[in-house]
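Person: I keep going back and forth on a fold encoding question. Show me how you would write down a chain together with its backbone fold. Please set it down just below, with no commentary around it:
Helper:
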Amino acid sequence: MRLATVGTSVITHHFLDALKHEPFFELAYVYSRSEEKGLEFAKQYDVPVICDWNTLLNKEDIDVLYIASPNDVHFAQCMDALRANKHVICEKPFVSNMREFKELMEVVYETKHFCFDAMTVMHLPNLQVIKDSLKEVEPIKLMNSAMVQYSSRYDLLAQGIIPNIFDLNHSGGALMDLGVYPLGLSIALFGKPESLHYECNKYVNGIDLSGVLTLKYPDKIVVCVIGKDSRGQNFTYISGENGAIVIPEQASRLVSVQIVKPKETKDVGVAQAQNAMVHEIQAFASILKNSDWGVYESHVKNTEILMSCLDDVRKQVNIVFKADQLV
């Protein structure tokens, strides 16, 4: 399938690097609102640039759009692409809220075109390893997961500049950018929590910069620590009565997995691609090749739970996006 990218940030470069490992997709075009940025980006991949959105949508030789634009425009661009009979791979966070998610899914089934949530953790081989390892340490009592990364754009706030990632108008914040990973991992392992709670540090504009998210299950508690305004060690620790599962890096990658018991520590993780996006691209290609709506719907269910949880905790701490105010 012929693919076009939307967005010229670093994440798009990572995506295109991963795309080299899946021959099912062929890069055909690069889209950018800025001709200058678009030309500079497209030159690196020797493909044409398109700067008009409608021209892109009307291209009959494009099968798939990869959308890596600001969070708040994901919904509108995905809708446009689906209605133009394109499949979509949309960078996380998938959309801004549950209203957008529900409307988007209606169009997915109406058009019979897939719209994929590009959440790396859901497609990593070591996610299945962790699921299989739970039985060795269960019953599980606690999970601690930290995703703390000092943002390269955080210093701009001190200069009075508000980047998209720290802007309520663009559906930004620590929860949407980083919190989706440990939250998504918890949902993938344990399903929907019975309750959840969020405490956060905010900037003066009301956006969350860092915080602690607590998920309560009937028999366990999950604590997620996230931050874009600080530095820290990233890890996930799943504690059970008979041992623990240790992932000594961020939840978005799951590079290695250990089972730790009182008299034994063993590495159980499998080798993964250095670029974590390779696995999600391969998963999406498989679904498209086989038109596998069953597998797709299992992914959609996790995204639905994730979006519902994000909506709930944002309401708790009064984080209101511009997208939430639309009727």
Q: What stands out?
A: The two ends are 36 Å apart (CA to CA). The chain has two domains: 2-113, 124-272. The mean pLDDT is 97. Residues 293-316 form the longest helix (24 residues).
